[in-house]
Every structure is written in structure tokens, then in C-alpha cells.
Amino acid sequence: MSVLSAREGYRLWAPTYADETAISHLEAGLADALTPPLSGLRLLDAGCGTGRRLSSAGVASGVGVDISPEMLEAGRARRPPGVWLMQGDVRTLPLPDQAFDVVWCRLVIGHLPDCRPAYAELARVADIGATVVITDFHPEAYAAGHRRTFRDRHGVREVEHYVHALPDQLAAARATGLAPVETREAAIGPEVLSFYEKAGKQALYAEHEGLPVVLALAFRREG
Ligand SMILES: C[S@@+](CC[C@H](N)C(=O)[O-])C[C@H]1O[C@@H](n2cnc3c(N)ncnc32)[C@H](O)[C@@H]1O
Asked: Rounded to whole angstroms, how far apart are CA atoms 204 and 127?
């Protein structure tokens, strides 16, 4: 199977990306747990995809940035009022310094060959004291042979992924003034059994059970 660049992969994945998967479900649980109550806060979702995680409920402002115009377009119809979506690269965010209280970068960093420029930008746009939440495809899942895949009319497609070990991510964060607050991971377990059952893949569930598939890191932006 040839590996698609992230740009090409998400161009093709965009029409069906809204469908939740076991991984996206587990990721959402981790990100929710690490995110403070959003009421009255300025929220940035860097690498927002379709913007499906952004809600205007209670936030002072909500901004989503993604490199893929197709992903942004796919989410346009359900975009909540007061949420702004724009095209841009997480390594060169088209946003001012210290403009957000909460910064998410969810399942994006693994598509970048070097995570350091993204960490630097996330830290730059986070205000002093802001929470930065970064989630990633778990290195152990990659080591076990799992890949970032989706299905289209040509069959199973793979999107490029670069492993960033936890110590490398923590070092990248520290170098930009992000202090680690908490690290969590989520593994395949009963919570996502229904995804396997719906796909008729119970045997695969037994094989995957216990494997960590999502890594989530929370940081506080230091002064
Ligand atoms: C797995 S999706 C996650 C989308 C969203 N964060 C979510 O959880 O639903 C990865 C997203 O990262 C975006 N992406 C990849 N490289 C990027 C970059 N350098 N800058 C901005 N977005 C990027 C892709 O276009 C895609 O929408």
C-alpha cells in the first residue's frame, strides 16, 4: 500500500472523516479530561480538521485552523455560530501571540516529520497560564504495526505518520515554555468494543485489547 502525504490523505478522507472511530472516540475522552471548563475562554483547535470538536457553547471565542481546505469545507455546514475556521499550518499559525486560553492540537503532530516547530507555534499563541492539550497516535500502536488508515472506493488508504516518542515531545515542549501538567494514554478496551462489533471484527478486538492507541499531553504555558 502506498503511503499518502497528509495533504493528499485528508483531501481524500474529508468526505467521510466525520464518522467516529475507536481511536477518535478514545481521543475525545482524553482531550475532554485534560481540558478545563471552556466557559468564557478563548479556544484554538490547531489542526481542527472539519472542526467537529469545536463548539461555541460558552466559549468567549473558538478558532479552528487546518491545512486542508477539503477538511474545512466538509465541516462548513455544521459549523456552530461564532466559530471561525481558517486554512493554515500549525507550524506557522496565522494568529497573534498569546491569543488563547486553551490550545488543542489533536491527532495532528504525528503527521509532522519534526514536532518542534508545531510546539513552538502552539506555545507562541497560548497566553501565559493557558492550557495546551496535544494528542497523538500512540507510539506503541505504531510499533505494534498499526497505521493511520481510512477506507475509500479504492480500499484501505494509509496516511503518513511520524513517531514522536514521549521524551522528544516533552523536550520540545520545555524548550518553548510549556510545562508538563499531565500525561495520559488510552488503550483498546470495552469502551470501544461496539466499534469492532459494528464492523463485524470481534476477533480483531481480542487481538487489539489492551494496546495503547492514543497519547495525550497537557501543558501549562509559563510566563
Ligand atoms: C486526524 S485529523 C484530526 C482532526 C481534528 N483534530 C480531530 O480530532 O477531529 C488530522 C488533521 O491534521 C491536519 N494537518 C496535518 N498536517 C497539518 C499541518 N501542518 N497544519 C495544519 N493542519 C494539519 C489534517 O489536514 C487533518 O485535518
From this structure: 44
User: Measured from the CA of 24, which atom of ligand 1 is nearest?
Assistant: 8
User: Which residue out of 27, 65, 111 has the highest number of ligand 1 atoms within 8 Å of its CB and is therefore the one to mutate?
Assistant: 111
pTM for the structure as a whole: 0.97
Question: Distance of alpha carbon 104 from its chain centroid, rounded?
Answer: 7
Nearest CA to ligand 1 atom 1: 107
Tens digit of each residue's pLDDT (9 = 90 or more) over 45-93: 999 999 999 987 789 999 999 999 999 999 988 888 889 999 999 999 9
**How close is the Cα of 10 to the center of ligand 1, in Å?**
8
Confidence of residue 13 (pLDDT cuts 50, 70, 90): very high
